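G., before I forget:
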Amino acid sequence: MINYAIRRILQAILVILGVTMAAFSINFLAGDPTYALLGDLRGLSNQDIQDFRHRMGFDRPIPEQYLDWLNKAVHGDFGMSIKYREPNWKVIMERFPATMKLAGSALLLGLLVSIPLGIVAAVNRGSIWDRISMVVALVGQSMPSFWMGLMLMLIFAVWLGWFPVSGSYEGWRSMVLPVLTLSFYDIARNTRIIRGSLLEILGEDYVRTAQAKGQTPGRVLFDHALRNALIPLITLIGIDLGSLLGGALITETIFAWPGMGVLTVNAINGKDLSLMQACVTMFAVTFVLANLLVDFTYTYLDPRVRLQ
Amino acid sequence: MKKISLFFSFVVVVSILLAACQPAATPVVEPTAVIQKVEFTAAPVQPTSAPVVEATAVPEPTKPPEKEVDTEAKVVVGMETIIENLDWMTNSTLNSFSIWEQLYDRLVDLDDKVVLQPMVGKEWSISEDGKVWTFKLRDDVKFWDGTPLTAKDVVYTFDRMQIPDYNIGNTTYMNSQFNYEKSVAVDDYTLEIYTKDPVPALLYTLEGINILPEHVYSKLTPEEAGSVTIMGSGSFVFKEFKKDDLVTLERNDNYWGKKSQIKTLIYRQIAEPGTRIAELETGGVDVIQSVPMDQFDSVDALPNAHVTAISNGCRQYLGFNLYNNPTYQDKRVRQALNYAVDWEVINQAIFKGAAPRLPIHVNKPWQNENLKAYEFDPAKVESLLTEAGYAKDADGVWAKDGKKLAPSIMIYYPKGSERDLVLLSLTDQFKKQGIPAEPFYLERSAAFEKLDKREIDDMFFIGSCTSYEGQGDISDLQADSGSNYGRWNNPEFEALYKDLLKEFDLAKRKELLDKMQVIVNEEAPMISLWIRIDVWGISDKLDWKPNPTGLAVLTGAVKYK
């Protein structure tokens, strides 16, 4: 078990390094950051441009710039944001909670809705409830999140006036529409997975044995079937967190929610390189840690994995 | 049951397919709404000694008798972006200047008609050699902490702009126009500014320089100035800044000038246009920026708001590679492409008739009013290209020496944006004239890198925002200018530009600019298109008119109860 943990942690570090290296390189492939920072070059001579590049360190080879960044990052220095004029770590820590609030709430809502829906659909296979659940799942997975967000805004904020249109100024009320937008896809997908997984489990011999022994349907479902049916879902939670953090970008933009998604896009558009790197690192670390946690939870839930 | 669910699924699928097969919404051809256009009618200001005037007059809004002014009003403005940090010198976006304008004072200022007015500098004079400007300052201007604003603060501000930590973004451009050597505080309220060369248009640069208090900023590191401390003397006092979220300002009740009738002014960053419109509709904001043209009618029809469209001085044009592509070094080809543009069709379809074709790349009042824009003329396209040695090949494409006239046009605006639609319309028009042009898309910084390194093969689509002074506009075509992306170099133009740099007399400057514009119009180093339009959504409770600077300055606005 310890060997497994060490192996997974080393793999996680390699993943983070790979992600940060890729992000660094891709950013330079999109163009010299000098031109993003200087604007439309009005009134500038070629010497002005070269002086600026030198001041910012952009005239060094890209690998050298990356290694310099990595050296400082390992010592906890993620550099200064050119745009915000603050340490990147501070800028991220101000915004990360807002995104985690959205993503975490969406994850929780996704589970709270999809698990009962999936159970109902599986247990009442072929019934009207099963059909309704599957239609909801189909719709949820088909609709793009930006459209969903705008529709929710139109209906519940503009027409009905139940919730604020955007911003984060009204406490929990401000979170309702963005969280719904973010969780829709997860609810849809998780419902289908739970239904499918549970249907498979309910057809197993040991479940039939439990039923034959006179166990109540509830006990059969919750004590024998559900735990096994949820194992695929546990795996998905780790991936979900990553996609929620990424998907939060669209939701944050629509609802003017000042989180990490908007911060990252602004950093990329503004060629605030060091901030962009710090954001990517933060996403990578969060994603990897979540998946590590999922992997360790998996070994606890499924004895077969432990034995392997 | 099975049949019902099958039928239901069939209905859903068919509905989705039908929705997908809907044709894209066609642009409105008939302009259905009145679009206000603001003309630059004011005369250029005298750059020599100006008479002493009272504090900058903020025009009194006309108040309908039944409406009561809310002097404790909170006004919320929805913008695409707000400030990036607390230091105006390191911010680059136009939107951030909407906020700085109200937090700081300057030596001179542009009024609602974009005419220069005295501000902290109540009068000025220029030395005979044109290199020393002497300003007399007002003695009643105070920073928010009560400290008087004096000449040493202005000196400090100018010197600070030269320090590399602050010499980025827009400050770099201002320094290039400033030609700054040094400044001296002769006494508390007398300032001398020394420039390396005569700068007749200096006032237009000074109107963008916000004065910082030396006693505060001289003690701050660049990081502290950007994130911790802010101090100004403007009509509003800074209260709060949440990055990429909002900036809150409060009325400065001790302001030396006309006090605003708004108590609290909040600028919110709302990137998504649909969200901004929804906020305006529900009363969450009072003003929104950048209403998409295809939403003009629906926003104007809102029961609680209206729309105002105004030219913002930013000019869009197509440029040519004039440095190493012989095709476009031929004036006849450039003129032919100018005649191939049927601008009125695009103007009606996309801008509802509010964006007439520009005759020249210069804003009024410095625009040569005798010049006419190139009109759509297929016959002239044909005759010019034939004269240049082109003939239509078997495909109906103009070609010369076996090479087709098929320009690739670089664009960095997002696909689906208004400017992208314009370019697609233009390439379509060129194709119909036998000139199969194609756009190619680049990310913005990659585009400027290619432009700077002269790596654009044929043409490019770009904009240039104005300093409201003719020299600034036309400098885009000056041979050494960083924004002369086509690298046009006309000796006659250059000689006139050299004279312009030294000429302080306004009438003579106008004459020089007029001559330069005639050359540009004839030589056609670019295809001038239109001046961009700002479309603002404004609550009916708010009495405010945007001005052509494109800034959301609400000092003179009034909100009714």
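Residues 313-532 of chain B form a domain with the Dipeptide-binding Protein; domain 3 fold (CATH 3.10.105.10). The two ends of chain B are 59 Å apart (CA to CA).

More on Monday.
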